[in-house]
């Protein structure tokens, strides 16, 4: 049976964490995923392309925060891919940005980023939204303004 996903784009300011939290709740009601990244103009992105990207020791220049829920009793997966390399944990710690204690760290890799898992019953959407917005902003060397773009993909 074919599943249909609804797609929407949110443009968020730092005062709109509640909108992102509400989008998380929609995804958690069935299944889907959300990607969020700081807004950076195309000419300031500085991405490593082609073959050089494969051999780079770092992830994307503009960090991407992700929340994924596959439905049922599966855990919620939350991640941040970034281009900071090995210093990412230190940067977040120095800024006082920490994942909620109920999240279990599954990966902290200099190129692939962070991945946490948490049960659907334990996730609090407002702290999750605040964490992903702050973490992606602080790990983005090219972000100028506190604006984010989120793509929401959820089961219809």
Verbal overview:
With 156 residues, this protein is of the alpha+beta class. The protein has one domain. The protein is 26% helix and 31% strand. The chain contains four helices and seven strands, in the order E-H-E-H-E-E-H-E-E-H-E. The protein has helices at residues 17-29, 50-55, 88-94, 125-138, and strands spanning 5-13, 32-38, 64-69, 76-81, 104-109, 113-118, 147-155. A seven-stranded antiparallel sheet has the order 1-7-2-3-4-6-5, covered by helices on one side. A hairpin with a 6-residue loop joins strand 3 and strand 4. The radius of gyration is 15 Å and the shape is globular. The two termini are 13 Å apart. 33% of the residues are buried. Residues 50-56 have low confidence and may be disordered.
Write the layout of secondary structure elements.
Layout (H helix, E strand, L loop, with lengths): L4 E9 L3 H13 L2 E7 L11 H6 L8 E6 L6 E6 L6 H7 L9 E6 L3 E6 L6 H14 L8 E9 L1
Antiparallel strand pairs: 1-7, 2-3, 2-7, 3-4, 4-6, 5-6
What is this entry, summarized?
The protein contains 4 helices and 7 strands, in the order E-H-E-H-E-E-H-E-E-H-E. It has 156 residues and is of the alpha+beta class. It has one domain.
The structure class reads alpha+beta
Strand order of the largest sheet: 1-7-2-3-4-6-5
> How big a fraction of the residues is strand?
25-35%
On the 0-100 scale, what is the average pLDDT? Answer: 89
Helix content bin: 25-40%
Separate helix tally: 4
Q: How much is the radius of gyration in Å?
A: 15 Å
The topology string of helices and strands comes to: EHEHEEHEEHE
Uncertain regions: pLDDT < 50 for 5+ in a row? Answer: 50-56
Could you give the distance between the termini? 13 Å
Question: What's the domain count?
Answer: 1
The count of strands amounts to: 7
Major sheet description: 7 strands, antiparallel
Shape: globular
